[in-house]
């Protein structure tokens, strides 16, 4: 028989105005008998849920979170309903969430709206109880109200947020009044990076830098148009930032989506100074390395492993070595490893043993309410092998593009699976044995979806 967790606090008012959710409690008095912290080797597992805004699967109606112990997360008789009784995370749209390595703290930076760019952290206390820890700080003056940020893997000490501004440059031939005579030269790309002290809620460093590709690439209309997912190298002296390239027709300056897809690129800059950016290129993978909502690159065994997207030969996992250059001898094609076509890595996460869970779509993915989504695979970074995880059910309306979080607990990787507007479950993959455990039920509501665990 299933049992459902009780509310830790009753939400009595939920106001939806312009997509911004706010809530108040019936009684601000703390629960005198809260559930104890997880005991033994357990940890909190926090489920994140994105409510529909205008369209099913858009996630623009706000974000709610709800925590349970790892034992409860593995228990299929447990049922939780975050949309009904979760804690509402301040954010105009889908919040950008991170968690501490032990699961006891949640970090959030609000995305867009009046609170956009506001950093806050919360102590996880079970169920819908998340207590703000210390004061917040806004990074909006540095990187805007819709920042792209990530928690660096440095013991929960530092976060980093990035942006890039681009502007086309033209030669007006001395006749600025006649723009039809203008000759396209290149795009000026300016990168901003800010680091954030997660412990003391303060700004550490901010730097702006010009980003340039090779003269030939820029003459052909290429430029860096989006950046994301900064990753600290093993030595702790370089920051790697994923990049997306765009292209214009240099004859007209108009967008060109039919041009050649160049080798995948990453921006490398000094850390912690955030100075001296350079751009490195892969000869193995092509397409983008900025990812989307989920962390796209991870340090493992002295190197950084990075997924690419939009590769005409299917997504690869690329390797950047300690010399801060791509290792082009490391070739890991997901198409080849899985025997599929057009693999596209949507999100992924490795455990400490070098084995990872990858969320992906391929040519066989069906078109669902939120586009063609996909499957899960277990991959091995050392052997460059992969196997589809068939125990996790596939449904066309399962939405992975906005997926944000996996939990790594030893060799176990936790994830959520629930189609848009339908119930689903937490699943736990033992990366060492490949055993898959179907865990707690996730109760959904119309048009909404789950965006991960933390």
Considering the chains and any ligands shown, give keywords for the structure.
454 residues; mainly beta
Structure commentary:
With 454 residues, the chain is mostly beta strands. It is built from five helices and 34 strands. The chain has helices at residues 70-73, 82-85, 140-143, 215-219, 334-338, and strands at 3-4, 11-17, 20-25, 44-50, 63-69, 78-80, 87-89, 96-99, 105-109, 118-124, 130-132, 137-138, 148-151, 158-171, 183-197, 202-211, 222-232, 238-247, 263-270, 278-286, 297-300, 303-307, 317-320, 344-350, 355-361, 367-368, 371-372, 375-380, 385-388, 407-409, 412-417, 424-430, 436-442, 449-453. The chain has a six-stranded mixed sheet, with no helix packed on it. Strands 8, 9, 10, 11 and 12 form a five-stranded antiparallel sheet that branches. A four-stranded antiparallel sheet has the order 7-5-4-34. The longest helix has 5 residues, at 215-219. It starts with a strand and ends with a strand. Keywords: Signal. Residues 1-22 form the signal peptide.
Order of strands in the sheet with the most strands? 1-6-33-32-31-30
How would you describe the shape?
globular
Q: Could you say which structural class the secondary elements and strand pairing correspond to?
A: mainly beta
Classify the oligomer.
single chain
Summarize the amount of helix as a percent range: under 10%
- Terminal residue distance: 27 Å
β-strand percent reads over 45%
Radius of gyration: 22 Å
Count of helical regions = 5
The total count of strands amounts to 34
**Poorly predicted regions:** 1-39
Mean pLDDT: 90
Main beta sheet strand tally, sense and closure: 6 strands, mixed
